[in-house]
Amino acid sequence: AAGVIQSPRHLIKEKRETATLKCYPIPRHDTVYWYQQGPGQDPQFLISFYEKMQSDKGSIPDRFSAQQFSDYHSELNMSSLELGDSALYFCASSIMGLAGRYEQYFGPGTRLTVT
Amino acid sequence: SQQGEEDPQALSIQEGENATMNCSYKTSINNLQWYRQNSGRGLVHLILIRSNEREKHSGRLRVTLDTSKKSSSLLITASRAADTASYFCATVLAGGTSYGKLTFGQGTILTVHP
User: Fold this and answer.
1) Any idea which fold B4-113 has?
2) Is the CB of residue B1 less than 8 Å away from at least one CB of chain A?
3) Which terminus of chain A has fewer Cβ atoms in its 10 Å neighbourhood, N or C?
4) Mutate which of A9, A103, A110 to test chain B, going by most B C-beta atoms within 10 A?
């Protein structure tokens, strides 16, 4: 069965650089979520999109932006990178259905290291 | 503050024993989900329990939910070394405006010794 695809899997950037993370949801899933997981931390919700519109926003820094495209893939753009942005970034997709009552399927994550 | 708090933070057992992890949360929920994560890797969905359910089973997993106490437990029976991982509970808030975002607890690190 198709899974959530994230690219790249690993990314090394320097401080103040920009990064773009991509997410390809499971076919026919209409909702995409982004989470950030710092070392030894639990995942933190960043932002979500439902049918290409932003549906919810969490603790996402102003330096970050995201969008969902017409083919439902999503991109997380991160600018002015800081050391503290080093983390695993997960994308998840789901079928919205009955007000979020369905499980989310997570991608393998992108490990971002900022040096 | 975290919606979900888990205990214990770490659990070490022998193969064949049962492992129980607990999760507490603070607000009304639509559902509660358990995820597993092998070291530094992706999150794997284990089980979802809705707010109107009290118990659910899936293979060697048993999840209970007590909405009056705002708590849940995950029981893994007859554990195996391959069950070694971090386990997270995550909640979806109640309310019609919820778009299903997950709020995670801090996780329990389970180590199963062969």
Assistant:
1) Immunoglobulin-like (2.60.40)
2) no
3) N
4) A103
